[in-house]
Specification:
Number of strands of chain A: 14
Number of domains of chain A: 2
Low-confidence stretches of chain A: 1-14, 76-94, 230-237, 240-261, 264-289, 315-322
Strand order of the largest sheet of chain A: 3-6-2-1-9-13-14-12
Protein name (chains A, B): Isopentenyl phosphate kinase
Binding site for substrate (chains A, B): 96, 101, 202
EC number (chains A, B): 2.7.4.26
Shape of chain A: globular
Strand content of chain A: 15-25%
Number of helices of chain A: 11
CATH superfamily of the largest domain in chain A: Acetylglutamate kinase-like
CATH class of the largest domain in chain A: Alpha Beta
CATH architecture of the largest domain in chain A: 3-Layer(aba) Sandwich
Domain Aspartate/glutamate/uridylate kinase (chains A, B): 97-221
Distance between the termini of chain A: 25 Å
GO molecular function (chains A, B): ATP binding; isopentenyl phosphate kinase activity; kinase activity
Oligomer: homodimer
Mean pLDDT of chain A: 71
CATH topology of the largest domain in chain A: Carbamate kinase
Chain lengths: 355, 355
């Protein structure tokens, strides 16, 4: 796991030339748009809902507003009335959910060794799987009139060294934004200078993009509820609710009392404490590493002065009133209103750096 | 149409660092692998055959040889025995056939004007369509154990100025080859410095890649038969067979007498004459511009000292003995044996530069 930006990143962060500011980077959690427990299955309903929400957030308008669909592929319902909302240069970054994980873990792509035929095959297979999902997301958003451009980190020439980002030029991403497009990236298999190849996760990509593009805020749309975290005066912190043993028993059940959780990062040291502590205390119930990486990367982003909102998009367990509530809360996060007005009843986690 | 490399290309052509030589660049004609007259329909049989042939050409072996399939997506027959042939750093470049043309021509993406909502939508729609085909080709080749990597010119940061290539860094393509992969590119919608956007055709990409990567030879797999071209002493040339008016009547019927056609380019002037003459005389029966561009680009490649073999892959009209023959002849071209041994009975067009 990366805890610090390496010098290459710190250098390049100062050189990106943006023709217009980026409002938001959205990380679509794989589990929120795919059926996590089914092999390569997209949750079409979730994908459609998130596409609709993103359009609403971008246009600041209602769902009934006319727009120009942009997926002119062999599907019903192409060519809607030409009416386009404004484009805000929003930036999407994706992880893969039930796509890519099997291929990557089966072949051990993250551990390198391209000279082994099985790793090489796994590298190819992983890229096929994650680009397949990315393609479907690009299409779903285009159908909502969002001018999406699929971009693979591998094709963009991004590479790592000892599994940390070594070269990740975002100039083409910036150019696409400058031309009014919404780039859609994804976690990818990439070349690594020290071990031939590895996996570059969507969370790490999100943090890198945030460092380079300096958006107003970052939203992580996730499927599992986050714990309430208490930060103490001395900078240490702990999970208050639900207790870890309870989470293990009940999965990730949500408590009606669980409202706004603001994780205030007060200084650089706190981030270090946070990262190492999270690894020890939360990893137990989070075998995919999702929670650990997410909080660590969110903390790194917050350290740059960029608010991070982690919000449930689609509750997997509770299906009643909370579903509507979660949808509403994610839309509020995407709309960017939380930065100026954080209502008491907003359900989600804010990671914010207070100097 | 481009007739000369611009200074940017000439410069970058000298700076590519290849860790191993490239044997061959293959241009899969869209019409050879898609159903040209049906909207976004892949010819699965052709795609499977061409994938098999490419594997045979790369391994130099028979079709029964065991290999490690690399498309581990939701399909039957994944995970074959781990046995991989050698990888020769072959390079593929694609055009789109029935993919992308509709979206591009409908919206006029090639003429620029991204500030118009309909052009912008067409840009997005074109990219969705061509990347969709590219993805399927990557998968088909991966199923044959070819370690393919899909790479979009747009994502690679390629751009044009006045519709000519302005910036097209192939270093990432070269790196992928150096790591033992077979990059698969495609004709793409790209950003243009002078008119916002345009279409970069597969033929132009092929020529650019040839100039940069300097392969031993280039193969164009096409679906329509090429005319017999006679080159005269003074460098002028004409189409001997079939006569142009007959081609208009009969489509592109093949004559049994049509064997090897070697177009010898003797000097720089000839190429200029060739380009301008072709535009006038052949364009009549070739509304897609395919023939004009192909011969012009092939001539540009030949000028670099690289043999170009244009060969029918799948006859669309004649379905009897010629089909098997064409398949056999395309395999011979892909295998690279034509460079040293050009048999009398080989059916196709060679474009070769004789100083």
């Amino acid at each position: 796991m990366e805890e610090e930006m390496n010098p290459a990143e710190q250098h390049s962060a100062t050189t990106v030339n943006l023709s217009r500011p980026v409002r938001c980077i959205v990380k679509l959690g794989g589990a929120a748009i795919t059926c996590k427990n089914e092999f390569e299955k997209i949750n079409e309903e979730s994908l459609q809902t998130v596409s609709l929400q993103l359009r609403q957030a971008m246009t600041g308008g209602g769902s009934s507003r006319k727009f120009l669909g942009m997926d002119w592929s062999k599907r019903p319902g192409i060519f809607e009335a030409p009416c386009v909302g404004d484009d805000t240069g929003d930036q999407l970054d994706l992880d893969s959910g039930s796509f890519g994980h099997f291929q990557a873990s089966k072949s051990g792509v993250h551990k390198g060794g391209l000279n082994q035929p099985f790793v090489k095959a796994g590298f190819v297979a992983t890229r096929i799987s994650v680009t397949s999902l990315n393609h479907e997301i690009v299409r779903a958003l285009a159908r909502e009139g969002i001018p999406t451009i699929g971009m693979s980190p591998f094709s963009c020439g991004w590479s790592t060294c000892k599994r940390n980002i070594a070269f990740a030029d975002v100039s083409m991403v910036a150019k696409a934004i400058g031309s009014g497009f919404v780039p859609v990236l994804h976690g990818d298999a990439v070349l690594d200078n020290s071990q031939d190849c590895t996996i570059l996760s969507g969370d790490v990509i999100t943090r890198h993009l945030a460092a380079e593009l300096k958006p107003e805020f970052v939203v992580f749309l996730v499927s599992t509820v986050h714990p309430e975290i208490s930060v103490r005066e001395d900078g240490s912190w702990s999970v208050v609710k639900p207790a870890l043993q309870d989470m293990n028993k009940q999965g990730c059940s949500v408590s009606p009392k669980l409202h706004v959780h603001i994780l205030i990062l007060e200084n650089k040291n706190l981030i270090r404490i946070l990262s190492s502590t999270v690894e020890i205390t939360i990893a137990a119930h989070d075998t995919t590493g999702g929670m650990v990486t997410k909080i660590s990367e969110a903390a790194m982003i917050a350290k740059l002065g960029i608010d991070v909102y982690i919000v449930k998009f689609r509750p997997l367990i509770l299906k009643r009133w909370t579903e509507q509530a979660a949808t509403d809360h994610s839309l509020r996060a995407l709309s960017g209103n939380l930065k100026v007005d954080m209502p008491e009843d907003w359900l989600g986690t804010v990671v914010r750096f207070v100097r």
